[in-house]
Amino acid sequence: MREPLTEEKVFKDPVHDYVYVRDQTIWDLINTKEFQRLRRIRQLGTTYLTFHGAEHSRFSHSLGVYEITRRIISQFERSGYPDWPAEERLVSLCAALLHDVGHGPFSHSLEEIFDTDHEVWTCNILQGNTDINKVLRQVSEDFPDKVAAVIQKKYPKPIVVSLISSQMDADRMDYLLRDAYFTGVNYGTFDLERILRVLRPYQGKIVVKESGMHAVEHYLMSRYQMYWQIYFHPVTRSSEIILRQIFRRAKELNEQGYTFRWMAAPLQQLLNNSLSLEDYVKLDEPLAQTAFAEWAEESDELLSDLCRRFMNRQLYKYVTIDNPDESLLLEVADALSSIGLNPDYHMEIDYPFDLPYDVYRPDQNNGEKREKAPILLLDNEERISEISMKSDIVRSITGLHQGQYHLYFPEEPLRENIERLPERMVKLFKLD
């Protein structure tokens, strides 16, 4: 086991005021090249094209998750709660710090096109030939595997997993507060201090004192609002669609043997589905955006147009439609084809939905395990109940939010060819 730092390190943070580092292992992990790479990965992907302040990184978010986890554990230790396994402190802090280290540029769009998983890459980084692995092995030879098991939700003590992966974990609490701060909205704010004070370790789980239920309700409502006002904003969804189309077209051209005017080795391996760990950690958003700037000059008109749109924020327009059926979508596709557009790339239906809180009661779910642990309340007589059993507010938001269908398309070529479009399509696209 490694010694603590001789002098505490402090990061000034706009959300938590300060982030405190007291362990040599944590300090060394922060200074690895793999963790420093997170400075070059935006936390909110393309949201900066909608909310210009959303330039914060996964580096700052990861520090925030670490800090919330540190504060929770410190509170448990100060209070001397017997149900907190004190020996799990360092593995919990390392998992909190490193939980996002495997994210790639514009990660979720990248994952969808190339069928990758950032948690798999996170574990590859923890367990592979990396600087992070070397630091973790200084604790013990099996320590990288322990941290990876927490990320994989396979760690033998669920209380450790729930710190960073539950329905009210350090990850969610930080990203809501941080994303609200940098997008300049109030939706994501909630009383973090109150929540931290009412958390308790109890019988291998983390529970909430029932007196703190209203603070948890506020947190869940904040999450609900952030998803519908920020994460699912239709303009952000438009930029994500174009981003996915860029990667999809580049992959398609690569499979056809197309010669790109510029290509970095990690991107080439990505398109070939042959990424090594060494090249994966070279992928970041500056590299991706350099490629987009170069590809904007490609001879392939489709890739060139998509890249110019993304780099210059010339996004697809959207219209709201009710329950589009197959015949309508075929009619739209035919209309786009008639003016020389490619329906596979120039139209997309988007229907975002979210489950603000997943009610989990084994007796009503045939024992099925949920990915995220439920929020449990502890009353004065030490009885545990799932929060929706006590909260009218939580029950009211447990159903899927009924979103709207949005049809996305490039407006300019449709306006230029408006006389060639059926009147029904002109009205649908709101070109009149």
UniProtKB/TrEMBL annotation:
<dbReference type="InterPro" id="IPR006674">
    <property type="entry name" value="HD_domain"/>
</dbReference>
<dbReference type="InterPro" id="IPR050135">
    <property type="entry name" value="dGTPase-like"/>
</dbReference>
<dbReference type="InterPro" id="IPR003607">
    <property type="entry name" value="HD/PDEase_dom"/>
</dbReference>
<dbReference type="InterPro" id="IPR045509">
    <property type="entry name" value="HD_assoc_2"/>
</dbReference>
<dbReference type="GO" id="GO:0006203">
    <property type="term" value="P:dGTP catabolic process"/>
</dbReference>
<protein>
    <submittedName>
        <fullName>HD domain-containing protein</fullName>
    </submittedName>
</protein>
<dbReference type="Pfam" id="PF19276">
    <property type="entry name" value="HD_assoc_2"/>
</dbReference>
<feature type="domain" description="HD/PDEase">
    <location>
        <begin position="54"/>
        <end position="185"/>
    </location>
</feature>
<dbReference type="Pfam" id="PF01966">
    <property type="entry name" value="HD"/>
</dbReference>
<dbReference type="GO" id="GO:0008832">
    <property type="term" value="F:dGTPase activity"/>
</dbReference>
